[in-house]
Amino acid sequence: MSEPADEREELSWEAFGAASRELAQQVAADGYEPDIILSIARGGLFVAGALGYALDVKNLHVANVEFYTGVDERLPVPIMLPPVPSVVDLSGARVLIADDVADTGATLKLVRDFCAGHVADVRCAVVYEKPHSSVRCEYVWRRTDRWINFPWSTLPPVVRRRGQVLDA
């Protein structure tokens, strides 16, 4: 199901810069000092990098999760792809999960549940949160119910690749 372009939220690179800085300011104002920023690839990589610089956190980890396959097209459930982060690396840490959007919340829930019981504290920071998300994030720049055009994923790939996910 495709929506007209004017029914979409447009995020420019410049607005993303402001958004990530505001997110970092929310985290700092809350007094939360993460030991690790765990990004949800791919969109969360941009958010995690920006938060890492703004919060002076160099310990960034990546969780590769596949859920969306297109606009409003997704797998039945999100799956974590290899390499899966080591819970030993997360043990006892204050973890900030970073992603671009909390849409259904299923991806964030998967990663948050993965961390549960292994970390001292886990919180989520997203650029956008949708009203129907099953996860309420602690740090949110904007709330919207529209489809979002992110500057890193609006244009089609330069090349199309097949079979790029590696088997463990």
Provide structural commentary.
With 168 residues, the protein is an alpha/beta fold. It has a single domain, classed as Rossmann fold. It is 26% helix and 33% strand. The chain contains four helices and eight strands, in the order E-H-E-H-E-E-H-E-H-E-E-E. The chain has helices at 13-29, 43-54, 87-90, 106-115, and strands spanning 8-10, 36-41, 60-70, 73-81, 94-102, 121-129, 139-143, 147-149. The strands form two sheets. The protein has a six-stranded mixed beta sheet with strand order 4-3-2-5-6-7. It has a two-stranded parallel sheet with strand order 1-8. A hairpin with a 2-residue loop joins strand 3 (60-70) and strand 4. Helix 1 crosses helix 2 (43-54). The model has no long low-confidence stretch (mean pLDDT 88).
Average the pLDDT over all residues and give the rounded result: 88
Roughly what fraction of the amino acids lie in strands?
Answer: 25-35%
CATH classification, class level: Alpha Beta
Radius of gyration over alpha carbons? 16 Å
CATH topology: Rossmann fold
* Helix/strand class: alpha/beta
Number of helices: 4
Pfam families: Pribosyltran
InterPro entries: PRTase-like (IPR029057), PRTase_dom (IPR000836)
Domain Phosphoribosyltransferase: 12-154
Keywords: Glycosyltransferase, Transferase
